[in-house]
Automatic annotation (TrEMBL):
<dbReference type="Pfam" id="PF00274">
    <property type="entry name" value="Glycolytic"/>
</dbReference>
<comment type="similarity">
    <text>Belongs to the class I fructose-bisphosphate aldolase family.</text>
</comment>
<keyword id="KW-0324">Glycolysis</keyword>
<dbReference type="InterPro" id="IPR013785">
    <property type="entry name" value="Aldolase_TIM"/>
</dbReference>
<comment type="pathway">
    <text>Carbohydrate degradation; glycolysis; D-glyceraldehyde 3-phosphate and glycerone phosphate from D-glucose: step 4/4.</text>
</comment>
<protein>
    <recommendedName>
        <fullName>Fructose-bisphosphate aldolase</fullName>
        <ecNumber>4.1.2.13</ecNumber>
    </recommendedName>
</protein>
<keyword id="KW-0456">Lyase</keyword>
<dbReference type="InterPro" id="IPR029768">
    <property type="entry name" value="Aldolase_I_AS"/>
</dbReference>
<dbReference type="GO" id="GO:0004332">
    <property type="term" value="F:fructose-bisphosphate aldolase activity"/>
</dbReference>
<dbReference type="GO" id="GO:0006096">
    <property type="term" value="P:glycolytic process"/>
</dbReference>
<dbReference type="InterPro" id="IPR000741">
    <property type="entry name" value="FBA_I"/>
</dbReference>
Length: 335
């Protein structure tokens, strides 16, 4: 495995490959399992993630890296193999979610600040030792007619930049994820408002990254797309693609090697179509790929349904969606 930050970052967004976000917190994976009536236990979480990581076709051909929750980084498969070794054996890179979650922000009602900086340097050393070569930190920006506030945008950008600097010092590539929510309350915002807030958020994030002396060549940006709120959705695929590219060109320096989107509550097909449209119609200074959680896993979770007999079906569903996302990362996906 390469060890230079730039090389790891380039490998994470290499031709037609992208990231599997399998780092749902214990509370979030419980919500996902509830949809198939499965109890979330250490074993069921392990079984589910082992199924995904052993999907050979997806992992070898389309998935450059996997974002893990801390529990998974240290977990063993049924046969005793470490799950990180399964990832590495497939030629993919293990990564780790390191933030401690978005918490209510004092003095800023209805907004959050992501916590987890205290003791992070020590945790990163442990994660590196365990095989992680990249990390993720998610800042959450709520959007409405009156939100976000400048205070919340600035504080979240600053925390992302502090985190990114610590990662690079530990030999770990930071995924910098400032998510402008599409499905937060009230969730009925226009695409104009999304464009305005996304541009503001990304500009502030790169100001803070510069202030904290983060090396742009050794990071990956994980943004949300410019899209109308979940309760207002009607912008076309072309419009989402055009506006997202416009904002990224205005705010993301070309020294950043890659941008890997989150899916954020878009349907599986929407997330695939939007990524493909962006790559098909533009000559871009960075690689543009996926770092999807729900949009990569939804079909696999439904096909598996918590049953050992369905492992093959779950893996086929995952490999299929990973292949479609890979085509989208090359701009050649067709409905
Ligand atoms: P979704 O693609 O489900 O939004 O998850 C990606 C992610 O990592 C959010 O932090």
């Amino acid at each position: 495995m390469t060890e230079k930050l730039e090389d790891i970052a380039v490998a994470m967004v290499a031709n037609g490959r992208g990231l599997l976000a399998a780092d749902e917190s214990t509370a979030t994976i419980k919500k996902r399992f509830d949809t198939i009536g499965l109890e979330s236990t250490e074993t069921s979480r392990r079984d589910y993630r082992e199924m995904l990581l052993r999907a050979e076709k997806a992992m070898r051909k389309y998935i450059s890296g996997v974002i893990l929750y801390e529990e998974t980084l240290f977990q063993h498969a049924v046969d005793g193999t470490q799950l990180v070794d399964i990832i590495r054996a497939a030629g993919s890179i293990p990564g780790i979610k390191v933030d401690a979650g978005a918490k209510p922000m004092t003095n800023f009602p209805a907004e959050t600040i992501t916590e987890g900086l205290d003791g992070l340097a020590q945790r990163l050393a442990r994660y590196h030792e365990a095989g992680a070569r990249f990390a993720k930190w998610r800042g959450v920006i709520s959007i409405s007619d009156t939100l976000p506030t400048a205070g919340a945008v600035r504080a979240n950008a600053h925390a992302l930049a502090r985190y990114a600097a610590l990662c690079q010092d530990a030999g770990i590539v930071p995924i910098v994820e400032p998510e402008v929510l599409m499905d937060g309350a009230p969730g009925d915002h226009s695409i104009d408002r999304s464009e305005q807030v996304t541009e503001w958020t990304l500009r502030t994030t790169f100001e803070e990254l510069a202030a904290m002396r983060v090396k742009l060549e050794g990071m990956i940006l994980k943004p949300s797309m410019v899209i109308d709120g979940k309760k207002a959705r009607n912008a076309s695929v072309a419009e989402v693609a055009e506006r997202t590219i416009r904002v990224l060109k205005r705010t993301v320096p070309s020294a950043v090697p890659g941008i890997a989107f989150l899916s954020g509550g878009q349907s599986t097909e929407e997330a695939t179509a939007h990524l493909s449209a962006m790559n098909a119609s533009h000559d871009l200074p960075w690689k543009l790929t996926f770092s999807y959680g729900r949009a990569l896993q939804q079909e696999a979770l439904n096909a598996w349904h918590g049953k050992a007999d369905n492992i093959g079906a779950g893996q086929r569903a995952f490999s299929h969606r990973a292949e479609m996302c890979s085509l989208a990362a090359k701009g050649t996906w067709k409905k």
